[in-house]
Design a protein that fits this description.
Number of strands: 10
Largest sheet: 3 strands, parallel
Number of helices: 8
Number of domains: 1
Strand order of the largest sheet: 1-2-4
Shape: globular
Distance between the termini: 28 Å
Oligomer: single chain
C-alpha cells in the first residue's frame, strides 16, 4: 500500500503497537466504534509520539501527506481531529490525508470545522476517503465494522461525491498478486466504481474474491483488502496531481 506514494514522496512509516482484531471487534460490538479501543490506549499514543518525532526531526518545514488504512485510518481520524487541531502550524502544510478503509463521517466533519473533505481530484488540505464493497453488502445493508453511520466516500475514478458511475475503463490499473510468480503486477480486474451516498461507500463489480471468514464483521461482500490495490494507479496519479496543485497555489 505504501508503495503507491513512492513515486511522489519520501515515505516515512511509523512503527506502532496495534490493537488486536479481537479487541477492535469487541469495541465495535459494544460501542459501535473500533476507535474506542484505540484512542485512549497504546496505538494512538505511539502514533502521536511518532508524529512528534517526525515533525521535530525529519519534516524540516516541508508539505506532507498523511496516509493510512483500516485500523491506521481509524487512528488517522483521531489524529486529524485532535493532533492537528493542537498543531495548526503543521496542519497548514498538509497536502492531503488519504484515510482509506475506515469511515470519515459528516458528523465528524461538522464537529471539526478545521477539517475539509475532498470535492474533486486536485483540491488540497483535504481528506480523501472511501470504503470499497460489492453490491451484495449494499443490498443486504450488511454490518461492516469500518463503515460508520453518515459516512462519506469519494469515487477514486472520477473524484465525485455523488452516485455518478465510473466504468472500469477509467481505471488506470489494479495491483494484484500473480499466484504463479508470487509477485504483484498491474492488471485490469474490471474495478469500476460508484458511490452509494446513503451508505457512504464505493461499490465495485471487480472480478476479485471478496474477503472471507468474517461476514458478521465486514459483510458478505467486502473488498476491504482492495481499498488501495483496486485503484492503485489512479491513487498514484492523484497523489501527483494534488502535490502539483499544492505547489502551484
Amino acid at each position: 500500500m505504501a508503495s503507491v506514494y513512492e513515486d511522489s514522496t519520501n515515505v516515512f512509516i511509523p512503527y506502532y503497537r496495534q490493537a488486536s482484531l479481537r479487541v477492535q471487534i469487541d469495541s465495535w460490538r459494544k460501542t459501535g466504534d473500533i476507535r474506542n479501543a484505540l484512542k485512549n490506549n497504546t496505538p494512538y499514543a505511539d502514533i502521536t509520539a511518532a508524529l512528534d518525532y517526525y515533525f521535530e526531526n525529519c519534516n524540516n518545514g516541508r508539505p506532507f501527506i498523511i496516509a493510512s488504512h483500516s485500523q491506521g485510518s481509524g487512528i488517522c481520524t483521531l489524529v486529524l481531529e485532535n493532533y492537528f487541531k493542537e498543531h495548526a502550524d503543521y496542519y497548514e502544510r498538509m497536502v492531503a490525508a488519504y484515510v482509506l478503509g475506515f469511515s470519515v463521517t459528516k458528523d465528524e466533519l461538522e464537529a471539526n470545522p478545521h477539517l475539509k473533505f475532498a470535492t474533486g481530484e486536485s483540491d488540497t488540505g483535504v481528506i480523501v476517503s472511501w470504503n470499497i464493497e460489492g453490491p451484495r453488502n449494499v443490498e443486504e445493508n450488511a454490518p461492516n465494522a469500518v463503515v460508520m453511520p453518515n459516512a462519506i466516500s469519494i469515487n477514486p475514478l472520477n473524484w465525485r461525491l455523488d452516485d455518478t458511475y465510473a466504468p472500469a475503463g477509467e481505471n488506470l490499473g489494479s495491483l494484484v498478486l500473480n499466484e504463479k510468480t508470487g509477485e504483484t503486477e498491474i492488471r485490469d480486474i474490471g474495478a469500476d466504481a460508484q458511490v452509494v451516498p446513503e451508505r457512504g461507500v464505493v461499490v465495485t463489480n471487480a472480478d476479485h474474491e471478496p474477503m472471507t471468514g468474517m461476514p458478521d464483521v465486514f459483510g458478505t461482500q467486502s473488498f476491504h483488502n482492495g481499498d488501495y490495490t483496486f485503484y492503485y494507479n489512479n491513487i498514484k496519479d492523484n497523489v501527483a496531481k494534488r502535490i502539483a496543485a499544492y505547489q502551484n497555489k
